[in-house]
Structures are given as structure tokens and as C-alpha cells.
Design a protein that fits this description.
Helix 3 crosses helix 9. Strands 8, 9, 10, 11, 12 and 13 form a six-stranded mixed sheet that branches. The chain has a three-stranded parallel sheet with strand order 6-3-7. It has a two-stranded antiparallel ribbon with strand order 1-2. It is built from ten helices and 13 strands. The protein has two domains: 179 residues, D-Maltodextrin-Binding Protein, domain 2, CATH 3.40.190; 98 residues, 3-Layer(aba) Sandwich (D-Maltodextrin-Binding Protein, domain 2). The chain is an alpha/beta fold and 296 residues long.
């Protein structure tokens, strides 16, 4: 699996269309999306019984996250960290009878902070992979991959994109592991290469598609879903999500917190709160029917 949390400067902070002579995508975000609501379920006694004693005694969980990586986590115009990861983790904490304390951290420091006992877990669009599983357990909560988008009504085949212009965010897997190899294959087959438009932010890549500067954009599936949800019907997914891997909540290897988080997540899935949390963010692919630890 080559899908992993992007570590570039920033991802989509919003996709809101502005109507003028042309429609464009901006990165101004005022807060949670339309239809969003607080989901804070009641504590479940069976799940509470699984919470480690020290955490239960203090009454809260500490969660590390690294905005911006919308819609998973980013800052509103008031500076509050919001997004899917925050909403889902807060609901899971409520099921466990706990409050959630969110701590912003550098992405590369989240795992060491868990090891150093300054964080209980992370929720930051981090991919569960074999290398990370050597030192941490992951409670998997969403399957994410690469998903292409194009203007509504414009059919594009991600597997037959020779000669097309494709927008990406600079330095992401979409650029290096998706579009670049496909372009090389086009040239090897005697076809024209894919013209790559590489942007600092993924909202700029989405804008390029809306304005017709690019035929399509390749982005992480949650990012694409968020763009489409904000695009007022002007963007559509094309092709299927591919190269999927799980986003997971990392905890210390062998920690008793993993089964507690797993049970809390399963409760959210069973009650429908999980789906209720994801829907306003435009995420309808990669949803879990069963909460797993390390994919099992």
C-alpha cells in the first residue's frame, strides 16, 4: 500500500464556490459544513468498563492532530480545530464516558508523543501500515484512497488519461505515485503524456477543474468528497477509488486503550452516529461496517 497521510504544507481547507463571471474554489472556511450537528452520544456502560483505570479516573482523553488536512482536521476562521477526526473522536470519547482534549502537534511528533505518554492517541488522517504497527496499534475508522474528480458531465477515465491535463497537490501520492507513473506509461505506449498542474493546496487543484484549466484532479478520497460536497454540483467523482488503505487512531502497542476505542467506534457504527458524523463532510465511501484493530 502506498497511500499515506500527506505531510505537505496543507490540504483542502474548503471548497466553496463563488458565483461571478466564472465559478472558482476558494480556501476561506467559516466553520462546519451545512447539515453539521453536534453528535455526543450517552456513555455506554459496557464500553466504559473497558477504559483503562488511569484514564477513567482523570475523565478525559488527549488526542493529537495536525491541521490542515480537510475535511479530517482544519481550523475554522475562529481558530478552532474542526473536522471529521475531531467529531468522530469526540463522539467515541463520549461513549467511553470521557471528555476529549484536542492538541495540535506536528504530524511527525504525534507518534513519539504517544510513546512519551503526553498523548493518549492520535486522530489525524494517519494511515495504518505494517511499519507503524511494529510500535503502535491502530483502531481503523475509515478506508481512504485516491479518487479523481472532473467537471460534472465530463467523463474522464483515470486509467486512460493520456493527453489530458490533471491537477494535483504538490508532493502528494496523487502526484508521485498516481499521475506520474500513468504519464510515463502513456509515453512508453507512444501516447501523449499527461500534463500535470501541481499546486501548493488541493483547493487550488479543485479550482483548476471548476474553471476548466484541468480535465480532472487526483486527490485523497476524503478530500475529493469534501470538494464535491462544496462544489454546488459542478464537480463529480470519476472512476473508482483505488489504492485504498485504512486511516487509524494510533495508541501504544499493547495498550488497553485500543479495545476501548474499538468498542466505542463499533457502538457509533451500530447506532448510526458514525454515518451521521461523516455525511455532512461529504464522505460516503470507505465507511467501516466493523471497527478493527490493525486491520483485524
Amino acid at each position: 500500500m502506498k497511500i499515506f497521510r500527506r505531510s505537505v504544507a496543507g490540504l483542502l481547507t474548503t471548497v466553496a464556490l463563488v458565483t461571478s463571471l466564472t465559478a472558482c474554489v476558494t480556501n476561506s472556511e467559516t466553520g462546519n459544513p451545512e447539515g453539521w450537528q453536534v453528535v455526543k452520544p450517552a456513555a455506554n456502560p459496557q464500553v466504559q468498563a473497558l477504559v483503562p483505570a488511569d484514564i477513567k479516573q482523570r475523565g478525559y482523553l488527549t488526542m493529537g492532530t495536525n491541521p490542515p488536512f480537510a475535511p479530517m482536521e482544519f481550523k475554522s476562521d475562529t481558530g478552532e480545530i474542526i473536522g471529521v477526526d475531531v467529531d468522530l473522536a469526540r463522539a467515541a470519547a463520549a461513549v467511553m464516558g470521557l471528555e476529549l482534549k484536542v492538541q495540535e502537534q506536528d504530524f511527525n511528533l504525534i507518534l513519539p508523543s504517544i510513546s512519551g505518554n503526553t498523548l493518549d492517541f492520535g486522530a489525524t488522517g494517519m494511515t495504518d501500515n505494517e511499519e507503524r504497527q511494529k510500535s503502535y496499534d491502530f483502531v481503523d475508522y475509515l478506508s481512504a484512497g485516491v479518487q479523481w474528480t472532473a467537471q460534472t458531465g465530463h467523463e474522464v477515465d483515470p486509467n486512460n488519461a493520456c493527453g489530458l491535463t490533471v491537477a494535483v497537490q504538490k508532493g502528494t501520492v496523487s502526484e508521485t505515485d498516481d499521475v506520474a507513473p500513468k504519464s510515463e506509461a502513456c509515453v512508453a505506449a507512444g501516447q501523449p503524456p499527461i500534463k500535470v498542474l501541481s499546486y501548493e493546496l488541493s483547493d487550488q487543484a479543485a479550482t483548476a477543474v471548476v474553471l476548466g484549466r484541468a480535465d480532472a484532479a487526483s486527490m485523497d478520497s476524503p478530500v475529493t468528497a469534501f470538494a464535491i460536497a462544496r462544489a454546488d454540483g459542478r464537480l463529480q467523482p470519476v472512476g473508482e477509488m483505488f489504492d485504498a488503505a485504512d486511516y487509524g487512531w494510533p495508541v501504544k502497542k499493547g495498550s488497553d486503550l485500543a479495545p476501548a476505542l474499538q468498542a466505542a467506534l463499533q457502538h457509533l457504527i451500530d447506532t448510526g452516529d458514525y454515518q451521521k458524523i461523516l455525511k455532512p463532510w461529504g464522505i460516503d465511501q470507505g465507511l467501516k461496517e466493523k471497527a478493527t484493530v490493525n486491520g483485524n
